[in-house]
Amino acid sequence: MPFDPILAAIRFGTGLSPRVAPPGSARAMLERLRGPDEAAAAWPIPTYDSLRPRFEEFLATGRAVNEARKGGGEAPVEVQERLASLRREAHAERSAEFRATLARLACAEDGLRERLVLFWADHFTVRGKSGAWDRYITPYVEEAIRPRVAGRFGDLLFAVTTHPMMLKYLDQDRSVGPGSRGGQARGRGLNENLARELMELHTLGVDAPYRQRDVRQLAELLTGLTVNGVSMAYRPAWAEPGRETVLGRTYSAEADLGTIRAALDDLALHPATAGHIARKLAVHFVADEPDPDLVEAMRRAYGETGGRIGAVVQAMLAHPAAWAPEKRKVRQPIEFLAASLRALGVEGAWLLGRDEGQTDELFQTPLAEMGQAWQQPPGPNGWPEEAEAWITPQGLAARIDWAMTVPERILAELPDPRAFVEAALGPDLPREVSVAAHAAERRDEGVGLVLASAEFQRR
Amino acid sequence: MAILLDRRRFLGGLAVGCSAAASPLMTPVVFASAPWEQRLVVLILRGAMDGLDVVRPVGDPAYRAMRPTLAQGGLPLDGWWELHPALEPLLPLWEAGEMGAVHAVSTPYRDRRSHFDGQDILEAGTGEEGLAGAKDGWLNRMLQAVPGIEAQTAYAIGREELKILVGAAPVSSWSPDARLELSPQARRLLEVLYHDDPLFRAASAEALGIVDELHREGQSGGGELAGHVQLAQFAAARLRGETRIASFSLGGWDTHGDQRRTLARALRTLVETIQALREDLGPVWGHTAVLCMTEFGRTARENGSKGTDHGTGGAMLFAGGALRGGRVVGDWPGLGDGDLYAGRDLMPTRDVRAHAAWVMRGLFGLGRDVLDGAVFPRLDLGSDPGLVL
Fold first, then answer.
1. What InterPro entries does the annotation carry (chain A) (predicted)?
2. Which CATH number covers residue B145?
3. Which residues of B touch A128 (CB under 8 A)?
4. Which of A5, A202, B291, B323 is surrounded by the most beta carbons within 10 Å?
């Protein structure tokens, strides 16, 4: 199957656009991916690190207010006001980060990079367990994930696993070696959550040959790694003494990040991880039941390059099964919104200019109605992949409702549906979509029908 | 005979251009009433409810020492058992015999302790072989065994997919906050657009059918995103009509840390859900059974962060006027060192599916061979625990 620019933009990017030409070749897609991150420069999102001072102030102010209450009184008015303003600020920032994310998806030249960012942010899902932490998910993605989406998987894994957002989300900040000085003194113990998800979700996959014993040993090996305030910290006094053996390999007794790095590198290079990551990428981009030969080619590329994600993606794009004309995947709701905005030619500057209320009304509430509340996946395994999970009566109703009602609120003038159908789907569109676009009684319905069509919902 | 077709097949087979709302056949009269009067609601508690904290075996000599910070403030039931204090609003139900618990139960899932696999097995209703591509859920297989099931007999409620109801038997699925207003022309064109894509065709036909039905009932739908109370109210409204089975899920049970606070929060949503069901079901509550099932229990001992980690055996709460509550059912394995599963978890002494099976037998009169064959393959049904009145 030859490379097809239209399919490349739809299946491996964020859709067709009247403003951005589709990629010319697989090589061009990969070169762009290796090149500078233009979308990040055009629509900036702050890194987690840059927000730490204010986050710390936020938590400290919150503590001061709580402690005053516990003591039966109230914190000084200026402290309470400061807390309220920090809270408003963080909320506004989170909304702005969502708009920047949407602008990148809708307007970026390099749609493949945006898709990989979504993929890895989902693979390494985090959520905030308290309101304050929820607000830093996008900065976490910007800092730990985005710069590494095509690099070595081991580097991505280390950056994510040592990030305070992940440590907090999977309770690593609560895990203390029971035999460590800290554990003995404070009577605290192990929490297995991070170790388990590391093996089950992030690296080996649930079908891999590991046992509860390995989870336990990895949890002991990870002790010492924790969060101090809002930053990652390594506390040797919390590290379980002695050597740990994970999957038959025994690690240094040295209590430091180096031991953790060594274990994570081994997990990243494990053959089960190569198979798990290859298959997951193929499932996400190509088909819920991908061609085994495609998965095998990607797995081999992973193994031969020491887990270079760019090489795995290259192997996918080089395989004929990746270019099968039938669109077997359904766009997830965030991809559907992005592809719609892209096809409508909405400008990034317009998106960035929306206020919080409009952002909720036009995008975030509809996303939740479509079954994908922004950054609130059901668990650490992220969002489902299967088409059936998304195209439920209620989920599809929400997509149709958005397609029929929101575009006219975004654009001063809607495009002519007869022209829009080709902008959204390319020249080789199925006859019935073209017929529907021509037969609609009204412009908004015509545009809505194109966006609601199965042809547009699939990729 | 056309009028006996279920809604999904009925709409799917309509000639293009014939709008469902305009069809004289699309009236509630078309649908035969369900095969039984009894109602079954299955609530899936996602995240692994700590059965040992919700229904507390304080009479077990090992219990309090295992849970130094958690075992406080329980509501005494009979000296041996206590209920978690957050369940206090439901105590009157318990005392009236309309709520109870089954303890030391689990699905056949062992050792990996993954939420997602655990939930998949719970909803598939199979042994671990169900992990490799379960095609359907156990509630759906139960429906497959009953002749004359209509789509509206069973409802999957909420925004997420409920695997427990997925399968060949027709079921309805909807979220009370959804809306779909289309002009007749847009509706016709949409039917054309989805005609050759079975997934989209079925989902849209179902959505339009439900919206039409709600319109006839004078409800418009739409509005705020549905919380647990709205889910319960929507379920109750369906169950007051032709619906006999409803399922939805409640999250928030994964209490790895600070469990006194986190579990109380999850239990409050459960309390409000059961209260809303009871209130809105009215007289129908009398022949309703609510089963609250979770993927597995949690560790017998508290962990290092005043919480509990993933375990094995746990509890199933039940409620409803059709059930015999006011008690804790089950064979207690003990919490002594040799009694625990893998030295860490409550030992399951019975398959939770056996309880669900006996409840369905009691409510719907299903044969034993159906229950331990098609519905729960190779399940050891054992003796009837007598949950159904």
1. DUF1800 (IPR014917)
2. 3.40.720
3. none
4. A202
Do the beta carbons of residue A436 and residue B192 sit within 8 Å?
yes
Domain identity same for B127 and B195: no
Tell me the average pLDDT of chain B: 88
Q: Which residues of B touch A185 (CB under 8 A)?
A: none
* Same domain (yes/no): B96, B193: no
ipTM of the prediction: 0.95
In angstroms, the separation between the Cα of residue B57 and the nearest Cα of chain A is: 24
Are B185 and A439 in contact (CB < 8 Å)?
Answer: yes
User: B120 to each of A77, A122, B116, how far by Cα in Å?
Assistant: 51, 20, 6
Confidence at residue A390, expressed as pLDDT on a 0 to 100 scale = 95
Name the minimum distance, in Å, from the CA of A197 to any CA of chain B.
Answer: 8
| Contact indicator for B89, B103 with CB cutoff of 8 Å | no
With contacts defined as CB-CB under 8 Å, which chain A residues touch B307?
Answer: 174, 191
Q: How many CB atoms lie within 10 A of CB A149?
A: 23
**Residues B13 and B76 reside in one and the same domain:** no
Interval A364-383 mean pLDDT: 91
Residue A157 belongs to some domain of the structure: no
A190/B contact by beta carbon, under 8 A:
yes
**Domain contains B153:** yes
Residues B323 and B203 in one domain: no
On whether both A372 and A264 belong to a single domain, the answer is: no
Residue B128: pLDDT band with limits 50, 70, 90: confident
Which residue segment(s) compose the domain that B54 sits in?
37-177+224-375
Whether A224 and A117 map to the same domain: the answer is no
Is B384 among the domain residues? no
Same domain for B215 and B93: no
> Sorting pLDDT into bands at 50, 70 and 90, what band is A368?
very high
Give me the mean pLDDT over the B147-176 stretch.
Answer: 88
pLDDT at B225: 60
Hey, which residues 51-80 in chain A have their CB within 8 Å of chain B? none
Number of alpha helices (DSSP H) and beta strands (DSSP E) in chain B: 12, 12
Quick one: pLDDT band at residue B114, thresholds 50, 70, 90? Answer: confident
- Residue A389 inside a domain? The answer is yes
User: Domain check: are B131 and B164 in the same one?
Assistant: yes
- Phi, psi (rounded to 5 degrees) for B296: -170, 175
* pLDDT for res B30: 36
The set of residues, in sequence order, having a beta carbon less than 8 Å from that of B96 and lying 6+ positions away, is B325, B326
Domain boundary residue among B159, B193, B222?
B222
Q: Is residue B389 part of a domain?
A: no
In a domain, A285, yes or no: no
Q: What is the mean pLDDT of residues B319-324?
A: 98
B310 forms beta bridges with B298
Dihedrals phi, psi of A410, to nearest 5 degrees: -95, -45
Across all residues in chain A, what is the average pLDDT? 95
Could you read off the pLDDT of A354-365 as tens digits, one per residue?
Answer: 999 999 999 999
- Which residues of chain B make contact with A365, given a CB cutoff of 8 A? 225
Percent of chain A with pLDDT over 90: 90
Q: Nearest chain A Cα to B255, which residue? A: A171
Residue B320 lies in a domain: yes
Q: Are residues A192 and A240 in the same domain?
A: yes
Contact assignment for A432 to B305 by CB distance below 8 Å: no
Encoding tokens for residue B245? 């089975």
Residues A241 and A116 placed together within one structural domain of the fold:
no
Give contacts of A457 with chain B, Cβ < 8 Å. 200
Q: How many percent of chain A have pLDDT more than 70?
A: 99
Residues 6+ away with beta carbon under 8 Å from B158: B175, B226, B231, B248, B249
- The reply to whether A287 falls in a domain is no
Q: Is A457's CB within 8 Å of B161's CB?
A: no
Q: What are the DSSP calls for A164-207, one per residue?
A: HHHHHHTTGGG---TTSHHHHHHT-----HHHHHIIIIISS-TT
Query: How many domains would you assign to chain B?
Result: 2
Residues A171, A218, single domain; the answer is yes
Residue B65 shares a structural domain with residue B142:
yes
Q: Clarify whether residues B15 and B90 are in a common domain.
A: no
Question: Chain A window 21-40: which residues touch B at a Cβ cutoff of 8 Å?
Answer: none
Across B298-302, average pLDDT: 96
In this complex, do A401 and B181 lie within 8 Å of one another by their Cβ atoms? yes
* Cα A337 to Cα A402: distance, rounded to the nearest angstrom: 9
